[in-house]
């Protein structure tokens, strides 16, 4: 059980950052993951008074505060318009509505969880992370950084013309996914993201030009097989490595066919 000795609602990012420099301090998101740990937290730092719970949309980008809930993102019209419904599709199977009303994008991205639908979704977009001290960096870089005592302030998604699709496999509803798979084609560049391998989501491009002539049954099969073979998978209680490799190929092929307008699954 988690034991919190002192709770503070920070008045500024600087105050939150300073409080978080102590090893026993923790930043609070929705606390859904944090509360499951068996830990004593010296100071729990709540960012709830810092106005970080909004999604701002401009012509060029979305700027999403760290305290924005997954449910806000799932329902956001602009985000769904831009991603062609991928926000709702990727986030809508995470546990249940009450859970997604509380889970924050800050906690989800900071956690860098291997099983994360959130990371898989965001990695298929041109997503940047804004850290209080570390500044702006691509999510792809942030995912592999060592955890430190910085603060995640906002997520930025740059709007570039593109198409996006998402599939995940769960053994049963509300469970963690066995495999997640997002696919985007942004300004002609394909980007496949495979997560819950069970390791962290990884990004694969079409370095071999297998999709250079466009998407057909054959090129979809060829790229899906190529990407699945290059994706390290592992075994845990939800599935074996061999099953995950098989799923990666199937979900990616389905995503490609859907992106190419040849099939629709959901
Ligand atoms: C039972 C269960 C099932 C789940 N199933 C899924 C699933 O199927 N798919 C999926 O994608 N996710 C799933 N998740 C993860 C969930 O969606 C959230 O990602 C997770 O709960 C973290 O979000 P939170 O807001 O609760 O963060 P918290 O638990 O509050 O925080 C998580 C970590 O991030 C740190 N943190 C939080 N905010 C910041 C910040 N702004 N700056 C710096 N550090 C910060 C905290 O100190 C903590 O270390 C599941 C979680 C649980 C508990």
Describe the structure.
- The protein has 266 residues and is an alpha+beta fold.
- It has three domains: 3-46, no CATH class; 55-158, Uridine Diphospho-n-acetylenolpyruvylglucosamine Reductase, domain 3; 162-259, CO dehydrogenase flavoprotein, C-terminal domain (Enolase-like, domain 1, 2-Layer Sandwich).
- The chain has ten helices and twelve strands.
- It has helices at 13-19, 70-75, 77-83, 86-91, 97-102, 105-111, 117-123, 139-142, 217-229, 241-259, and strands at 3-9, 26-28, 40-46, 55-57, 61-65, 126-131, 135-138, 152-158, 162-169, 179-186, 189-195, 202-205.
- The strands form three sheets. A five-stranded antiparallel β-sheet has the order 4-5-8-6-7. The chain has a four-stranded antiparallel β-sheet with strand order 9-10-11-12, with helices on both faces.
- Strand 4 (55-57) and strand 5 form a beta hairpin.
- The chain binds flavin-adenine dinucleotide.
- Flavin-adenine dinucleotide is lined by residues 26-34, 36, 47, 66, 94-95, 103-104, 106-108, 110-111, 113, 115-118, 151-152, 176-177.
In total, how many beta strands?
12
The CATH architecture designation of the largest domain is 2-Layer Sandwich
Report the β-strand fraction as a percent range: 25-35%
* H-E order: EHEEEEHHHHHHEEHEEEEEHH
How big is the Rg? Answer: 19 Å
Average residue-wise pLDDT: 96
Task: Tell me the domain tally.
Answer: 3
Shape: globular
Helical coverage, percent range: 25-40%
Read across the widest sheet, the strand sequence of neighbours is 4-5-8-6-7
| Ligand names | flavin-adenine dinucleotide
Terminal CA distance reads 39 Å
Tell me the name of the CATH class of the largest domain.
Alpha Beta
Summed up, the helix count is 10
Main sheet summary: 5 strands, antiparallel
Kindly report the CATH topology of the largest domain.
Answer: Uridine Diphospho-n-acetylenolpyruvylglucosamine Reductase, domain 3
């Amino acid at each position: 059980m988690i034991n919190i000795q002192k709770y503070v609602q920070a008045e500024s990012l600087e105050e939150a950052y300073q409080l978080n420099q102590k090893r026993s301090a923790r930043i609070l998101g929705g606390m859904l993951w944090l509360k499951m740990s068996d830990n004593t937290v010296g100071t729990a730092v709540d960012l709830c008074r810092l106005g970080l719970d909004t999604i701002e949309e401009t012509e060029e980008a979305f700027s999403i505060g760290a305290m924005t809930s997954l449910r806000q993102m799932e329902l956001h019209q602009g985000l769904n318009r831009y991603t062609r419904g991928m926000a709702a599709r990727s986030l809508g199977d995470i546990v249940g509505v009450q859970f997604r009303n509380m889970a924050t994008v800050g906690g989800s991205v900071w956690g860098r969880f291997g099983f994360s639908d959130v990371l898989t979704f965001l990695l298929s977009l041109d997503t940047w992370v804004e850290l209080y001290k570390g500044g702006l960096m691509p999510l792809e870089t942030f995912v592999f950084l060592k955890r430190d005592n910085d603060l995640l302030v906002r997520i930025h998604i740059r709007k570039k013309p593109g198409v996006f699709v998402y599939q995940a496999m769960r053994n049963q509803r509300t469970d963690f996914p066995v495999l997640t798979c997002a696919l985007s084609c942004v300004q002609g560049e394909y980007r496949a993201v495979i997560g819950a391998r069970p390791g962290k989501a990884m990004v694969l491009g079409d370095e071999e030009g297998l999709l250079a002539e466009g998407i057909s049954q054959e090129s979809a099969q060829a790229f899906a097989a190529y990407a699945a073979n290059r994706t390290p998978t592992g075994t845990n209680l939800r599935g074996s490595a061999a099953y995950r490799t098989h799923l990666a190929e199937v979900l990616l092929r389905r995503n490609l066919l859907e992106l190419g307008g040849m099939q629709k699954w959901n």
